[in-house]
Amino acid sequence: MLGYLTNSIFIIALCLVFSVVVVQSQSTCSPKLIAPLVLPVRNVTLASQEVYRGIPLSVGTPLQNLAFLLDSLASNDTLLNDVGDFCDNTTSLIQCQYNAGGQIDTGASSTWSQASSAAAAGAAPYDSDLDSADIFGTDTLQINTSIALKHYPLGILRGSNAQPNAIGFNVNSTFLNALQAAKLIPSRTWSLFWGLTGAEPSSQMDGSLVIGGYDAAKTAGPNSTQPTTEGQGCSLLVTMTAINLNFPNGTNFNILGTSHGAALRMCVSPIYPIMTLPYDIWQSFQAFGGGTYIGRSVGINVWGEVFAAEGV
């Protein structure tokens, strides 16, 4: 069983930097420098007027605005939630749109073209977490006001439980491949700063996804290079040695305790906007953190634990 912490209670500013392949010019002439591509991570207002935090991108003609998450854990492809049968009859339209970061209507896009398979659409080899009922096709992916990827391969979830509206950033990412082929990024290096989503304005900040580099202002100290792992369900495992509660009187308390030994192995994956922890650590947070527990969130941090603002 896992306990969940919302960012309004426990704020972690994490900047992830990944380098997959560095591209170098083979020309004997001075190459034209290509700047990294910077995309915002912010609260996006969906068609349902609900607010969802993610990377704002648009799909189709005319453009349909969506909020995307980044999946470096399992997927290479860009997967969408559409107005088909992704949600069951027990889920309202607003809930379905919100929980997925919005929905796309392929029938309303004049540039949507359904393909017979993922390969026919130009997508990466079929991701293991997809279902045979899912469909693939191509459409325009608008990245910002000046960059659009025409005939971009997209997956529509119709049977799998994969995260909808997710950009696959695994080792054979179709998104990175398309940007690199179009010479829109200098390398396949990417970095993610989620930003701050606290309850008070002083604890709120838009994040950024930098493709082809990283934001030096979000880093400190010497670089640390670590190998990635494959075949364990997580490509980026980290070892956590402490989870400190910082109290207003200047004291600290490590809620990690001793039940997991001196450290805890955790998986870093941007596809999950909230942190999951073993239940005993969550109980320790509840015991020492104070406040009045209300229940689960159905807001920006879906299914996170919610506490009353008073007494925290």
Q: What portion of residues is helical? A: under 10%
Spatial order of strands in the largest sheet: 4-5-10-6-9-8
Distance between termini?
25 Å
Average pLDDT rating: 79
Q: Spans with pLDDT under 50 lasting ≥5 residues?
A: 1-14, 19-30
How many alpha or pi helices?
Answer: 4
Radius of gyration, CA atoms, in whole angstroms: 21 Å
> How many strands appear in the DSSP assignment?
21
- In terms of structural class, how would the helical and strand content be classed? mainly beta
Question: Strand fraction band?
Answer: 25-35%
State the major sheet: 6 strands, mixed, barrel
H/E series: EEEEEEHEHEEEHEEEEEEEEEHEE
Characterize the overall form: globular
Question: Which secondary structure elements does this structure contain, and how are they paired or packed?
Answer:
Elements: E1 2-5, E2 15-18, E3 37-45, E4 51-59, E5 64-71, E6 78-80, H1 93-100, E7 113-115, H2 118-121, E8 135-142, E9 148-156, E10 166-168, H3 174-181, E11 190-193, E12 196-197, E13 204-205, E14 207-211, E15 237-240, E16 244-246, E17 252-254, E18 264-267, E19 275-278, H4 279-289, E20 293-296, E21 305-307
Parallel strand pairs: 5-10, 6-9
Antiparallel strand pairs: 1-19, 2-11, 3-4, 3-14, 4-5, 4-8, 6-10, 7-8, 8-9, 11-14, 12-13, 15-18, 16-17, 20-21
